[in-house]
Every structure is written in C-alpha cells, then in structure tokens.
Amino acid sequence: MEKLKKDRLLGIIVLVIAAFFAYFTGKLGATNFEGDPGPKMFPYMGSIIMALCGIMLLVKPEKKEKGKFLSRDELKHAALLFGIYVLFVVMMKYLGFVITAPIVLFIVSFLFSKISDPDAATKKRIIRSLIYSAAVTAALYLVYVVALDAKLPSGALLKLLR
Amino acid sequence: MLNYLLQSLGTLCSFTGIMYILIGSVAGLLFGSLPGLSGGTIMVLLLPISYKMDPVLAMALFMSIHIGSTCGGCIGSILLGIPGTSGSIATTWDGYEFTKQGDPVRALSAAVVCNFIGTIPSILIAMAACRTLANLGVKLGPWEYAAMCFCAVCMVIGLSKGNMVKGFVGVGLAVLIASIGTDPINGSVRLTFGSMDMYSGINVINIMLGLYAAKLILLEYARRSRGAKTNIKVRRFKWPGKDLKDNIGNMIRSFVTGAFIGFLPGLGAPTSTVIAYANEKSLAKDSEKWGHGAIGGVIAPEICNNAGIGGAMIPMLALGIPGDAIMVQFMAVMSIHGITSGPMLMKTNPDMVYMLFTAAMVAAVFVLLVQTLGMPMFPKFISFPYHYLYPAIIVVSFLGSYMTAGSIFGVIVTVCACALGLAMDYFDIPIMPFIMTYILASLFEKNVRQAMNFSLVGVQEFFTRPVSLIFIIAGVAVLGMHFVKPLISKVRE
Predict the structure, then answer these.
(1) Searching chain B, which residue's CA lies closest to the CA of residue A90?
(2) Which residues of A touch B166 (CB under 8 A)?
(3) Domain boundary residue, one of A59, A83, A106
(4) Is B459 in the A-facing interface, judged by CB distances under 8 Å?
C-alpha cells in the first residue's frame, strides 16, 4: 500500500515540476532563425515527458510492495550527515577552507569511528580524529593550493575581519 | 595507428607516465575491492583536478583507475562474499565458497588471470572497431546523431530493470535541468531565474559528485556500514593452468557475452556477468557444483566483466555516446580539456584515443603484477578503516565542486544533487537514464535543431533517412519489448 501512495505522491511532484518549468519556458523569447524550433523546444519537451509520466503515475501506480528505503533511525542519521553537508557549505562561504575542513573532517571521522571502531574509548577516538583531521587538512592544502595552485575559499567573514 | 601506439607507449614509459599508471592501478584496485565504493568514486573525485593535468596523461590515469577497479571487484566477492563492484556480484556465488572451504587463493588466482585475459583482447577489438565506426560516424548528419541519442536513452531505459515510467521521469528531469543556462544554437539564456551562476548551466561534474560521492557516503553512514574486518590469511598466487585449460570454452563464450553487452548502452557488467554465469552454469557438466565452489563460476563472470571494458569504449570514442556511467566520466575529463568525443576525435586527437587503448593494456599488465605479487595483502585492502576514508571523500568532493564552478555555487549544486539522488532512490527512479540523458542532452538538442534548420521537409526527414530511421526503430523496439515481453510470457503460460 505504501508503494501505491509513494507513486501517487511522485506523480503529483512530477506534475508540479512540469508545470513550473512549462510556465517559465512560456516566458522565453522566440528564435530569429528560420526553421529553428527555438530555445523553448527542449524545456517544453522535458515538461511534456514529465507531465505524461506524472499522469501515468497517478493513474496507474505500481502495486508491488517494497521494503522501506530507510528506517526511522537511518533517516535520522542521514539527516544528521546532510546537516553537516549544509554546514560545510555555510562555513566554507563565511569561514573559508582552512577553518571549515578540519572541523568537518573531525566531526565526520568521529561519527564514522563510532560505527567502524565501536570498541575504542571515546577519548582515544577523539584524539585520533583530531590528528586525522589536522593531517588531512594539511595534505589537502598541499595538494590543492601548493601543487595545483587552486584558489580555495578564504571566507567572507574572515575577509571582513581582516 | 602503430605510430600513435608507440608514441603513447613512449609517454607512459616516462617516470611520470609510470607513476600515473601505478598510482591509478593501485587506487583503482583499492577502491574497487572496498564494498560500497568503486573506481567510479575516485574518478569523480579526481575530475575537478584533472584540468591541471596533461590531458593525455589524465586519460591514462583515469583508464588505469578504471582497469584497477574492474579487476579489484573480485577481491571483496571472494574474500568476504560482498562484491566490491556491481560487476562482481556473480563472482560472489562461487568465489566466496572457496574462501569458506579454506582455499581463497585458487579462486583469486583464477580471477586475477581471467581479468587480464578478458581485458587485452577487448581493448584490441575496441581499437579496430573504433576506427571503422568513426569512419562511418563522420558521414552521419544531425538527423542520425539526434536519432542515435534517442536510441541510446531508450536502450538505457528499456534494457535496465525497473519501472519504465520512472526511467522516463529521470529523462524528463535531466532534460529540464540541462535546459538551464545558455541555449546551444542561438545562445539565448533560459531558465536561470536571474542567477548569474546558472548562465553556463549546471555542470555535470557537480551533479555527479553529489549523486555518486556525497550520496554514497551519506547512505553508508545512515545504514551504519561498518566496513569489513577479516582474519582470513591469503597465501601467494598460484598459476591456475589446469583451471583455465578446463574452461577454455567457458572463457570464449563469456568473453563474447561481455564484449557484446558492454557495447550496448545501459546494461553493463552487472547484467552481462549474471548472463554469462547463468549461461555457463546451464552448459557445465558439473552444474550441480555451481554455487558451492565451482571454478567455472569464478572464471565466467570475471572474464565477462573485463571483456566489457573495450565494448563500452567503442560508442563513446567513435560516436560520442557513452556506454555506461564510467564512460560518462571519461567524456567529462575530455570536455574539461575542451575535447569532444565522437567520430572527429580519431582525427583531431588521435593521441588521446590511442593513449586510452595503450594505457588500458599497460594498466592491465600493472594490475596483473600488483595482484599476483600482492595477493597476500588482499585482506588488508578490504579492511581499510572507513572512518579515515569517508570524511576525506566528503571534503575532497566538496572541494572539487568548488573548483569546478569556481564559486560556492558548485558546492550548493553538489549538496542539491545529493538530495536529488536520495529522492530518486526513495521513489525508485533509476539514476542511469538521468545521467545518460544529462550528458547527451546538449548533443541531442543541438542536432535536433540543426536538423530542423537544414531540413526542407521538417521532422519528416528523421524518418526518410535510413540510418536515422534504423536508430529510431531500434529505440522504439527496445521500449516496446518492455510491453511485449510480459505478453509473450503470459501467452506461453
């Protein structure tokens, strides 16, 4: 039964996306080239495919049942790591690579070590994660900034403070 | 041809060349052997920094990772019963039985040699076929190219398992996202919603980093993946002469299966290896032993898995149509260096094409050496602690996103792509049709519109040109099979 609801929900989402893109595609200008279907053709094509799929999913959802994608606990863990991803983006923007990378590396390493090395004492795991995050940040800095001459974000906030 | 091969070999024989191949092969082996990861992951991570590399050597590095990863998949399958890559699933069925019986070396030795035997002829075939196909490819017009793109996407949807409507949802979504940015014919800006960052479109590398790397780590954490710990001791490599001699027919048939299926977009090693396994099991004299430790059950999938390497390269190099997700990454590396794969590639950048072939063969030799000499180290390969590997992958993938876009926008796209990937997994929308359509979208739109511009009779010309018509019929037929197949089995019942 869950699958049935899931497919219908997907059908609605797909229809909304199709309508959204179709609306904005309609606002595009036409082409000056003779014979050219113009820039509207491709997004309209995508919208039509999506709309047809949405209708199919609403009218004829799959009836086969399937196991849950993620359990409640797994969902919580997924949300936690996704939150760290978002945190990474925000921190990179305002604090730059040198501050963000070791913090994120430490948090993620510590979280994963809880799973892959559950027998180790918390203090030991913290120390290992600290050393690891410092070493990896230094290695990444050497590879990206020194060897590849890449410009990594220095952080909008730090720039202001300077 | 020989000229370019020798030139590529000369480049690879330099210190830098050898290091690229060695590092690529070992990294590929390591990532390929680790369940959950694959060579594709490390390739995605390296995509953004490949622009700093020499393009020819970058291709060599990526190819050696690909070869290493394809060969390394069997290590996890045989030692843990967990396939390192999706192409090694069938190896698990018999390979792990050998480990349980205390003789992993026999299965590993046979697999290692079969990997090599499968790779070399497949590359030689690809080399011959690419030239012929590219010569034909230059004669094709936009009608044929548009029809070919249509056919490739239909094949990915039609031949892969799962709900076809959801495959089309992936296609539609890819078409819409690919529409963002500048239109490829008259350069008008569309669907950017006022954002300057979106003027040049959404980079496929940012999307792949989110869909493959960031999502993978997130799911591994959510599912509390512990990584593998094993106490198995593996002795030195033993030449599997008798096993190979007893399975010559098996090897030839599995090779043909792998090479042919590898050529078709969408199916790839997971399907071909299972088909080869099932086929050989039905032909085997000792079929009752299969699944309980038959060496033929290791040889068939491993030969087949590697035979697909050359097969998948043919459409990508000769026509610009990727056979699988890995070939999409090769196309991405080329595009970073301003090179477009397709029939003209053999004429404009023959050095790059032949470097791919040479690197594949040299990497196959390196991988064989590393695997035969380093076999006792295999248990260490698969016990690499995840809490050291995954955090670095996350940070490297986000740094790569930043470098690709040149701004934080790239990282935002990657995080959004990760969320999109999760949503797609939740709703069972296959990722392959999405990514395949995304990479072909610009080529498809450009050719459809050019065809319409050139044509005097409009859409009709797609159906009056024979090659274009064949591709359209093939695409429709593959999709039609989805509906016909259940009807046939119903009638049979």
Answers:
(1) B408
(2) 10, 53
(3) A59
(4) no
pTM above 0.90, yes or no: no
- CA A40 to chain B, closest CA, distance in angstroms equals 9
Q: Do B318 and B133 meet the contact criterion of CB atoms below 8 Å apart?
A: yes
Q: How far is the alpha carbon of A120 from chain B, nearest alpha carbon, in Å?
A: 13
Domain count, chain A: 2
CB pairs under 8 A between A and B: 201
Give a yes or no: residue A131 inside a domain: yes
Q: What percent of chain B has pLDDT over 70?
A: 97
Contact B188 A29 (CB under 8 A): yes
Q: Is B453 on the interface with A (CB under 8 A)?
A: yes
Give the pLDDT confidence of B306-322 residue by residue, as tens digits: 998 988 888 888 888 88
Residue B460 CB partners (closer than 8 Å, separation 6+): none
Structural domain boundaries, residue A50:
2-59
Q: Which residue among A24, A62, A97 sits closest to B163, beta carbon to beta carbon? A: A62
Cβ–Cβ under 8 Å, residues B327 and B132: no
Q: Domain boundary at A38, A59, A80, which? A: A59
- A50: nearest CA partner in chain B: B172
Cβ separation A43–B391 shorter than 8 A: no
Residue B181 main-chain phi, psi, to 5 deg: 110, -150
What is the value of ipTM here, to two decimals? 0.92
Mean pLDDT along residues B224-239:
77
Q: Is the pLDDT of residue A2 over 60?
A: no
Do A43 and A104 have their domain in common? no
Whats the size of chain B, residue-wise? 493
A67 found inside a domain: no
Which pLDDT band, with edges at 50, 70 and 90, does A83 fall under? Answer: very high
**In a domain? residue A64:** no
Does residue A94 sit in the same domain as residue A48?
no
- The answer to whether residue A66 sits within a structural domain is no
Identify whether the C-beta of residue B210 lies closer than 8 Å to the C-beta of residue B418. Answer: yes
Question: In this structure, are A53 and A85 located in the same domain?
Answer: no
Same domain, A155 and A100: yes
* More confident call, B343 vs B359: B359
Q: What percent of chain B has pLDDT over 90?
A: 29
Same domain, A120 and A99: yes
Mean pLDDT of B19-38: 85
Query: Looking at beta carbons, which residues of chain B come within 8 Å of A132?
Result: 388, 391
In terms of phi and psi (left: phi > 0; alpha: psi -120 to 50; beta: otherwise), the region of B83 is beta
- Is B219 in Cβ contact with A115 (below 8 Å)? no
Segment B330-345 shows an average pLDDT of 83
- Helix B89-100 vs helix B296-319: angle between axes, to the nearest 10 degrees? 150
Among the listed residues A75, A50, A55, the one whose alpha carbon sits nearest the alpha carbon of residue A7: A55
